[in-house]
Amino acid sequence: MGAARTGAGTSGGRRRAVPWLVLGLWIAVLAIASPFASKLSDVQRDRAVDYLPASADSTQVAKIQDRLPGGEATEMVVVYHRDAGLTAADKATAADQIAEIAGAHRLTGRPAGIPSEDGTTLMYPVASTEPGQDEEARDALVNAVRDVAEGGDGLSVEVGGAGALTTDAAEVYNSLDGPLLYTTAAVVALLLILIYRSPFLWLVPLAVAGIADYLSMGVAYGLNQGFGTSVSGQSTGIMTILVFGVGTDYALLLVSRYREELRRIERPYDAMTAALRGCGPAVLASSGTVAAGLLCLLAADLNSSRGMGPLGTVGVLCALAAMLTLLPAVLVLLGRRVFWPLVPRYGSTPKARRSLFTAMGSSAERRPRAVLVGGALLLGALALGSLNLPGDLKQEDTFTTRPEAIAAMETLAAAYPERGTQPITVIAPTDRADAALAEARDTRGVESAETGRSGGGWTELTVLASAPPQSAAETATIEELRDRLDGSYVGGPSAQQVDLEETSARDTVIVVPIVLLSVLLILVVLLRSLVAPLILVAAVVAVWGAALGIGGLVFGPVFGFEGTDPGLGLLSFVFLVALGVDYGIFLMHRMREESLHGAEPTRAALTALRTTGGVIASAGLVLAATFAVLTNMPMVQLVELGFVIAVGVLLDTFLVRTYLVTSASVVLRRRVWWPGRLSRAPEEEPVPTGDREPAGV
Fold it and tell me: pTM here?
């Protein structure tokens, strides 16, 4: 008796101490991470070189320019325009303002005005090494030039060029942090309130997700300082989306299982322990799959994609750690009352009701082959819409709004249709600079070429093409310069865009097979089967194609987008495969568990759908909603990425998981587990599993 009381007392003390210990450890971790998390914005870089391909010519040009005397040059174009034609007073105003700019700032040359043939526009190319690599100094320079270059009385003055465009892009990215976080949190909060139907419960996973996001910022800063991982506005935004999206998914699974266990187990601590044992393995496996898929981006040559892999992985792992440690501790400390008004009483049973997923399973059971073929044809038909995707996105089409740099580009394109208005930068070895200059001037499509700075064995050449920026003719000129100028590098804004497109295509060819192979291997190990993993991988690939196809049907006709981001295909593939397989793991894990408990194949598939369908649907809605937040951002590439992933997650949740995977499992029966031992088990009579307590997720 005494020993029993001592054991019970020890157990009770542990129940009380462990949650408080976990809470204390998280407070300590946050205290350590806080100074680093607050510094993440300081290392965020959104220069062109931070997005460019690591090995491309344009990247080498940007790096060498940093080492030339004065450092990186900030290039701008001041554009003066009057619809009725510039007057003598307009030209005098322009000359005075440019002289004031030259007197106040260290320019690389003397700006000379270039009039348009129709007399409506006058452009002054302006470049300065004054800011160097300092982004704040660059923005200050651009804004100072804009303060001086002012029009009025019908005269419009716009400051464009690569430097101004970078400043405008940085301003947009910097403005995303607050709205993106607040909007994401608000969307998740609304959905959690609707799902839980409790005035208190939704606050717990939302607060834990916020803490996980803060921790991920500190870890991301550590990766940057320790390993040089690039941090951009795009990658930090995606990291926040992932933390709230997958973190809330894991919370939904855990809370759902915890609610079930509270009806069966009296003490919250013991109920949470049972819940973690039940759904923990599937959550760990799914998060590992997502992390493995994202880490495959390290094989990409595009800096922006390669940096997104580690940061996305950090977000997923921080969300996992918080939802499997901090969330359980808080829920245990709050007890059953956190579920008010729908408190799960010990010994009670939930109301029996026919769920939507039971009805879906019944339709899949009646005609599984028809459902499977029909769903596959639907996804294939939707995928044909990808043929309607607009071409590659140009710089002037990058924003959903119209910043000044884009307005300047549009004015230049209309006023100078016969010539280039954006310089091409050539970096040549100094001992061959004269020959390179002569060769550049002799290249077809080049209007002019001049020598610029020299230093460190390199000389800068500024080349102006005769064709408009980012036209097919200018691209041909860039490629010919690269062919003829052996040993030199050709860069500049247009060359950067060419490299982005070519590298994105190359990365897709390399990264996609790596993602598929890594995810497939993880699924084979987890499910101890080859057929089931192949079904899941084929399903998520089909979803990706269908989601891109829907994008092709709406991006141009509905959204009015003039182009598609070159990295859309690769990034959407990685996210949809990794996140889509996530839900497949939950479903198949439960199906396998039912089979291990003796259920015959059809009953195992339908029970898995009935017991996991509601949670997966809720998780899918939350994840789709978090990515849909990106569609409200002012960057076209973010809108496109958010739209494709959100649509793909919804297709995966309500079509593929509920109908196609279930139907395939019903058709294949035990063969779905081939060559594992479950595939060799003899067929048995159906075992009623509906009244048994769920054993898995």
Answer: 0.82
Tell me what the mean pLDDT of segment 448-472 comes to. 87
Confirm if 289 and 520 have CB atoms less than 8 A apart: no
Give residue 360's pLDDT.
Answer: 60
Look up residue 655 and give its two tokens: 């079509």
Query: Is the distance from CB of 414 to CB of 461 less than 8 angstroms?
Result: no
Determine the straight-line distance between the first and last CA of the chain, rounded to whole angstroms: 38
**pLDDT tens digit sequence for 405-430:** 888 988 988 888 866 677 899 999 99
**Angstrom distance (rounded) from CA 467 to CA 449:** 14
Cβ-contact 85, 122 below 8 angstroms: no
In this structure, are residues 211 and 26 in contact, taking their beta carbons and an 8 Å threshold?
A: yes
Query: How far from chain centre, in Å, is Cα 122?
Result: 40
Q: 207-242: per-residue pLDDT in tens?
A: 999 999 999 999 999 999 998 888 888 888 889 989
Q: What is the pLDDT of residue 440?
A: 92
> What's the chain's Rg over C-alpha atoms?
30
Rounded to an integer, what distance in angstroms lies between the CA atom of residue 9 and that of residue 68? 73
Q: Is 77 helix (H, G, I), strand (E, B) or coil?
A: strand
Q: Which of 217, 325, 177, 194 is nearest to 622 (CA)?
A: 194
4 pLDDT exceeds 70? no
Counting Cβ atoms within 10 Å, is residue 333 exposed (0-12), middle (13-18) or buried (19+)? middle
H-helix or E-strand containing 631?
A: none
Percentage above 90 pLDDT, the chain: 35
DSSP-based three-state secondary structure for 497? helix
Q: pLDDT higher for 427 or 585?
A: 427
What is the chain's length?
Answer: 697
DSSP conformation class of 686: -
Q: Residue 277 is encoded by which pair of tokens?
A: 């044992």
**Which residues lie below 8 Å from residue 405, measured CB to CB, with a gap of 6+?**
158, 159, 160, 161, 164, 165, 167, 168
- Identify residue 217 by its one-letter amino acid code: M
The confidence score (pLDDT) of residue 138 equals 86
Going 520 to 525 to 530 to 536, the CA torsion angle's sign is negative
Looking up tokens 């010519």 gives 57
Distance of CA 486 to the CA centre of its chain: 37
From residue 646, how far is each of 420, 548, 638 by CA, in Å?
39, 11, 12
Instruction: For the beta carbon of residue 146, count every other beta carbon within 10 angstroms.
Output: 17
At 158, the pLDDT band (50, 70, 90 cuts) reads very high
Higher local confidence (pLDDT), 514 or 654: 514
* In contact, 491 and 427? CB cutoff 8 Å: yes
The SS3 call for residue 47 is coil
Interatomic CA distance for residues 381 and 549, integer angstroms: 8
**CB-CB contact of 615 with 600 (8 Å):** no
The owner of tokens 């270059």 is 149
Task: For residue 473, give every residue at least 6 positions away whose Cβ sits within 8 Å of its Cβ, in sequence order, or none.
Answer: 445, 465, 466, 467
Nearest one of 635, 120, 162 to 399, comparing CA atoms: 635
Strand partners, 489: 427
